[in-house]
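Lecture 7 notes: from sequence to structure.
We start with the chain below.
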Amino acid sequence: VVRRDGVLTVPRECHSVKGVTNFRPFVGAEWRRFRDQGFPMKGKPRPKALLCIADADAVAVQLGVTARAQPYDDWITRAEDEFTRLLRSNTDRPEQVHGALLRWNLESTLIAAYDEPDAMQRLAGEEPVNTKRLDEFLHDCRPDPRTVEDAAFTDTFEGSQKCLMALQEGMQWRRLKKGDRRKDDALTWMTEHRLEKLVARVPDLGRIARRVREIALEMGE
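Predicted structure tokens for the same chain:
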């Protein structure tokens, strides 16, 4: 979340997040129910706006937006406008619905923590991190992430899923599965202790946080 002073912070609790695999049906039916009746948690106010966040490349292909191009900011703006238009076409209150896109997924944010021992230890789980093996793994990467500026990290390491799998294999860790608690533990540590570094390497996080703030201001929050 972006505070009024522009500083990025992460709330300790957030109940207004729901994972879905198909946005349009959710916007057309479930969102209306949540909006009119509120969330099932006792005392939780009815939501005033909906922000759908999806994988940028996958949605762009579906929408017919030209493949990722430079400058990236122009491309993502066009793709998000099309995504929002599609979502709003399926609701009776279009002004409440917004779309946002991420180039990177959960795996992306995890590999951005490659140089944080505490985060790596949480990703490894109970197994101790072999620092010598980690150094050798990073040295063999092409390019070595330690030679890449934070601002160029996203564009340099686009295949985040493959990178994370290679990290697991190189470190000989127990395989990370979907919903693995180790992922959440590592990401939670990064957001609580190294948020600025995470946002520098995954700039879409900051962009979406600012979008959340803009929506709140539009609602008078």
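Points to note: The first strand starts at residue 50 and ends at 55. The radius of gyration is 19 Å.
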